[in-house]
Amino acid sequence: MKGNSYLPRKIHSLLGVIPLGLFIVEHALTNYSAYEGGKEGFSDSIDLLNSLPLVLWMEIFLIWLPILFHGVYGLYIAYQSNINTGRFSYGRNWAFTAQRITGVITFIFIAWHFYETRLQVALGNVSHEELGQHMNSIVSDPLAFTAYIIGVLAATFHFANGLWAFLVSWGITVGPRAQKVSSNICMVIFVIIAALFLLSLFAFRGDEFASAAATALSSVSVG
Questions:
Q1: How many CB atoms lie within 10 A of CB 50?
Q2: Is 87 helix (H, G, I), strand (E, B) or coil?
Q3: Where along the chain do its domains lie?
Q4: What is the Cα–Cα distance from 173 to 203, expressed in whole angstroms?
Q5: Considering the entire predicted model, what is its pTM?
Q6: pLDDT averaged over the chain?
Q7: Which class is 6-217 in CATH?
């Protein structure tokens, strides 16, 4: 990459793990509550998050601004990268290529998901109590459901593989053995977090959220 990019790259790498990595884990656990506890469990998780002090400012400075920097700079990195899997097809080079591709997919997916959910809440079109029903209306569309599956798989792989790269670039895992072990651990993390998200997506498509959505729609119609 041209120019002095050491500091921006370090910031980009750090933000991908702290706070964005923590946000992905939290988001996965919150959504998983829809699978484990149904509509009530998911509602309780949302209420817990909204009860946090200064939650709006935490979202802005710990989530959305870091996502914006990490995403935009990540697109620049992807644009500047040399994709050479045809020449060097060993595993880590494929992971390097997949990291760039999933980064682009994740950026588009998060922008769409933000528009479909968080922005609709901010505009008053959807209340926090209606988020479960709203997600049901989104993922009930087969195309949207497929897009969500692709999006969460891309995002979780991007995080897990990025975590491996973070450990290497920050000098935490030194040597082939340590990097091999961390690679296996990061792939386990990918499988676990991806499973949490996928289970939550199937939960949002379930009868409980569908019936809740139908009830809400019926109430609006009667009103």
A1: 10
A2: coil
A3: 6-217
A4: 38
A5: 0.88
A6: 89
A7: mainly alpha
Residue 222 binned pLDDT confidence (cut-offs 50, 70, 90): very low
d(CA 74, CA 39): 36
- pLDDT value at residue 2: 47
Which residue's entry shows tokens 């998050």?
49
* Rounded Cα distance, 188 and 26, in Å: 17
Q: What is the DSSP string of 171-193?
A: TSS-SHHHHHHHHHHHHHHHHHH
Which of the pair, 212 or 51, is modelled with greater confidence?
A: 51
Task: Residue 156: name the closest of 59, 32, 21, 13 by CA.
Answer: 21
Contacts by residues 57-63 (CB-CB < 8 Å, ≥ 24 positions apart): 62/19, 62/23, 63/19, 63/20, 63/23
Which residue is it, tokens 């809740």?
212
| Residue 126 token pair | 């959807």
Q: Which amino acid is at 56?
A: L
Q: At what angle do helices 142-169 and 20-50 cross, to 10 degrees?
A: 130
Structure tokens at 193: 């977090």
Rg (CA), the chain: 19
**Both ends of the chain: CA-CA distance in Å?**
60
Tokens of 78: 């992807």
Q: Residues with Cβ < 8 Å from 220, sequence gap 6 or more?
A: none
The DSSP symbol for 54 reads T
